[in-house]
């Protein structure tokens, strides 16, 4: 046994077991996220059930069965629930009833012994609305300009999808006008105001101010005329969007009118075949990835968060790579070896272990208030006291992440430079190359895979950071993208959304916990997949560079 331990075999098995355990845990977590997140988009059947009320009457409820669980009788009694018998455990079901504007809540628990007459009505419909969440019920009639054009479940459903598609097209046109044309006019008006204020701050003469005001009056009149035309288009579109109305009925007989302009889409899950459900599932995932969030991030999609995460990581990589590589080259190739260099290296190593929130506080205090405030004073004085760069935004978030990941790039690049054999350097110098030519044409290209390794590690860390971003530019809701058709087209001063912060907000700040739970897993799944894609792209590039320089060296 002693010889077996001395051979090192137990430690090999111990390391292998630890790695296997870690892999099982990682796969388990990813599997949980995948199952919980991806299953949210599957169209579940609607159950109609009779529920016994406290006064002895029964009412019908149409809902999705979310989950069922056993609960101890003592727990229920402590909650004030009256139980009919002496059983130690009772089964209760969580139902997603929707109809928040009718019932005041989306989800409710019901005990199994209070429920009866389970049915799956074929004509039940689900309406995904822009406000008030989902509606579960039955179609009564469809009206256009107060004229009934269809009545009854079958007739209404035959015309409803086409009408909803038309309403969504009108809604998209309205959004496009608001985001492009009206935004352009607002920016033009603001530019005229700032131009006049800039002349006043620069102590321009009265003649210059009068000339500018005369020209501004003409431009303002042209913008007002454009706005009047656009407003007329918006009024026409809003009138068209509001002409169709759907009257629906809940399972317990309550009727209400829903404007088709408030409906995103409708479907009948109980009447759908498996192939139809698969098609709906794919479309639902695409909508989740491509749409804006709604209802305090408990409905809709996450496209602004995906766009903000990718944009910020790309900017971070552009900033951190040259600075980290140049710093590592200087420390390894040019700096004089001594105690000062050792202190610098120790400081770089220690920076890698500083909590990320500290970088966020530094970014807020130095980048935003000091650097951004001075930029506003120098270049955007006419906009003050409203800050431009003196407030958290995309650029400061990217710069803070670059500072956060800088030690990783420096250390990885230094390690790569140290692995280059001295014989290669001597051979280059012996052939007549200068030290600079040897460094930039021989050594640095061979160390490129190590630089890419540092970049991969920095991307993996930056994409998942949340704490510092909450201080320097990431917000709960920013549906407007930092890229548009207004000069300078890329607005680095704007605030953005981020998948990591979106996970935090949905998971811990949502007013509707049960509604946000599946979105939490789905967003986490997208974040993990995005990090994997970014890392795989960087790894592929590193491997190509490695093979390229290996073949050249051969």
Q: Shape from CA axes? A: flat
Instruction: Write down the CATH topology of the largest domain.
Output: MetI-like fold
- Major β-sheet, in short? 6 strands, antiparallel
Total individual domains: 3
The gist of it:
The chain is α+β, with helices and mostly antiparallel strands. The protein is 60% helix and 14% strand. Strands 6, 7, 8, 9, 10 and 11 form a six-stranded antiparallel sheet that branches. Strands 4-3-2-1-5 form a five-stranded antiparallel sheet. It has a two-stranded antiparallel sheet with strand order 12-13.
Provide structural commentary.
The chain is of the alpha+beta class and 554 residues long. It folds into three domains: 47-120, Roll (SH3 type barrels); 138-273; 307-553, MetI-like (MetI-like fold, Orthogonal Bundle), CATH 1.10.3720. It contains 17 helices and 13 strands. It has helices at residues 2-6, 9-38, 73-78, 100-103, 153-201, 206-241, 274-290, 303-334, 339-351, 356-379, 394-418, 422-430, 435-446, 448-464, 469-472, 499-508, 513-553, and strands spanning 47-52, 58-72, 89-96, 107-111, 115-119, 125-129, 134-144, 147-151, 244-249, 255-259, 263-267, 293-294, 299-300. Strands 6, 7, 8, 9, 10 and 11 form a six-stranded antiparallel sheet that branches. It has a five-stranded antiparallel sheet with strand order 4-3-2-1-5. A hairpin with a 5-residue loop joins strand 9 (244-249) and strand 10. Helix 2 packs across helix 17 (513-553). The longest helix is centred in the first third of the chain and has 49 residues, at 153-201. The mean pLDDT is 87.
């Amino acid at each position: 046994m002693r010889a077996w331990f001395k051979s090192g075999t137990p430690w090999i098995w111990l390391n292998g077991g630890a790695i296997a355990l870690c892999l099982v845990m990682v796969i388990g977590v990813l599997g949980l996220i995948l199952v919980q997140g991806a299953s949210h988009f599957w169209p579940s059947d609607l159950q109609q059930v009779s529920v016994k009320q406290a006064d002895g009457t029964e009412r019908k409820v149409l809902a999705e069965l979310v989950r069922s669980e056993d609960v101890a009788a003592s727990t229920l009694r402590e909650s004030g629930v009256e139980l009919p018998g002496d059983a130690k455990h009772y089964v209760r079901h969580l139902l997603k009833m929707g109809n928040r504007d009718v019932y005041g809540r989306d989800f409710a628990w019901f005990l199994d012994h209070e429920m009866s007459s389970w049915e799956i009505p074929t004509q039940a419909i689900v309406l995904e609305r822009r406000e008030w969440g989902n509606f579960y019920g039955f179609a009564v009639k469809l009206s256009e300009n107060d004229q009934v054009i269809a009545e009854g479940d079958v007739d209404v459903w035959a015309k409803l999808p086409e009408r909803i598609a038309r309403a969504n097209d009108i809604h998209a046109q309205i959004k496009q006008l608001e985001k492009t044309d009206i935004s352009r006019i607002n920016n033009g008006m603001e530019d005229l105001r700032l131009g006049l204020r800039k002349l006043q701050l620069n102590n321009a003469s009265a003649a210059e101010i009068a000339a500018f005001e005369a020209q501004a009056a003409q431009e303002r009149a042209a913008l007002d005329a454009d706005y009047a035309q656009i407003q007329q288009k918006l009024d026409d579109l809003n009138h068209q969007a509001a002409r169709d109305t759907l009257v629906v009925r809940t399972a317990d007989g309550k009727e209400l009118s829903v404007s088709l302009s408030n409906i995103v889409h409708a479907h009948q899950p109980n009447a759908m075949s498996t192939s139809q459900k698969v098609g709906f599932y794919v479309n639902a995932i695409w909508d989740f990835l491509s749409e804006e969030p709604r209802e305090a991030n408990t409905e809709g999609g996450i496209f602004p968060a995906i766009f903000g995460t990718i944009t910020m990581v790309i900017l971070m990589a552009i900033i951190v790579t040259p600075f980290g590589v140049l710093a590592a080259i200087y420390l390894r190739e040019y700096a004089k070896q001594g105690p000062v260099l050792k202190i610098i290296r120790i400081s770089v190593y220690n920076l890698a272990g500083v909590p990320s929130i500290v970088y966020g506080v530094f970014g807020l205090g130095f980048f935003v208030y000091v650097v951004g405030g001075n930029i506003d004073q120098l270049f955007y004085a006419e906009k003050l006291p409203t800050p431009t760069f003196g407030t958290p935004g995309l650029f400061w978030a990217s710069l803070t992440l670059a500072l956060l990941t800088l030690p990783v790039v420096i250390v990885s690049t230094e390690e790569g430079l140290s692995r280059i054999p001295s014989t290669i350097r001597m051979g280059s110098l012996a052939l007549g190359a200068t030290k600079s030519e040897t460094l930039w044409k021989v050594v640095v290209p061979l160390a490129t895979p190590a630089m890419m390794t540092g970049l991969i590690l920095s991307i993996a860390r930056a994409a998942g950071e949340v704490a510092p971003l909450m201080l320097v530019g990431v917000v709960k809701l920013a549906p407007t993208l930092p890229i548009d058709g207004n000069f300078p087209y890329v607005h680095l001063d704007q605030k953005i959304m981020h998948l990591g912060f979106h996970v935090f907000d949905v998971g811990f700040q949502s007013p509707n916990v049960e509604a946000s739970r599946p979105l939490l897993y789905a967003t986490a799944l997208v974040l993990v997949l995005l990090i994997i894609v970014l890392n795989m792209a960087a790894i592929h590039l590193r491997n190509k560079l490695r093979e390229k320089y290996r073949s050249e060296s051969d």
